[in-house]
Design brief:
Strands 1, 2, 3, 4, 5, 6, 7, 8, 9 and 10 form a ten-stranded mixed β-sheet that branches. The protein has a four-stranded antiparallel β-sheet with strand order 13-12-15-16, with no helix packed on it. A three-stranded mixed β-sheet has the order 14-11-17, with no helix packed on it. 18% of the residues lie in helices and 55% in strands. The N and C termini lie far apart (116 Å). The longest helix is centred in the last third of the chain and has 29 residues. The protein contains three helices and 17 strands. It has 317 residues and is of the alpha+beta class. It folds into three domains: 161 residues, Sandwich (Jelly Rolls), CATH 2.60.120; 80 residues, Immunoglobulins (Immunoglobulin-like); 59 residues, no CATH class.
Amino acid sequence: MPNLFTKREVYEWKNSEWDYVGDIGPCSYNHENGTCIQSTLSHLECPRTTGCGGEAWLKVKIDLSKINGTDKKLKYISVVGRIDKAWGFIGELRGGIEIYADDNKIFDGLINYGDGKFIKNEWNVDIDLENYKSLDVKIWHWARVWLGSVEIHTARPTIEIEYDAFVPPKKYNLTVKVIDKTESNPVIGAKVTLLRRDELVDEGITDRDGIVEFFDLDENGYKIIVEHPNYYSGEGFVKLDSNKYIIVKLLRKPSMWERFIEWLQANWWWVSIIGIVFGIFVLAPSLIPEAIRTMKETIKASVEALRGEKGAEEKRK
């Protein structure tokens, strides 16, 4: 009898259509974050003393019969959340993820939302799916606002199902080329790191052609981080279901000289003052007494002018 191999199916939903009800704004796509769904709720759009609210949700189905294996188990669930508040937001909100197996609820989790930044919600579970035919997944968020506005981001929902199969997991190769974003030249010596659920899988350094290769990687999704001391770091995600060749473009950091020029442009008035002071005290010290005398005369004339105006005002009274 052939050996069994443990495999995982990864399910992700990118830019899927969400439904919504109530005063909450239509969900929109934030492509920068890949699978982010954003809803906006503002008291300006519903000025009622009772406040206003609404709910948005995504429902998807997983056909377990298409997984060719045995001992199927739900092993991992993740989603990221973020909220952006404005105009003195006062209200309440929540979000969650629910999973049903043949109409039986097998998982229910609430989502934590980062204030102004994405935070990752992860659940490592071990739920038997062997006797079920399908999964129904619902990701949702709900809000009510009395003052201000809030943007709710519920993003990158991911589910992983583990199972045993007689076919060994497929292996693929990944080639990464790193180039300068402006000049399109290869970036030599860039460190390329592959992560799987934030755990290190492999890493390498680009050669003189800006290329690094990774071999015999499992069919899966990987996070890629590219770093170089002369460039801003870059990162992305690749789903490896075949041999792939990808290009990563890095933006070069300004040199010390360029940063100095930027500083001069931003602080030109201080540079001018320092130059004048330097010119007087170092290059032409003989002008110092004259400069001090002129300053005293200017102050004296200003004081006398103020006294004259005050006297004229008192005579008018």
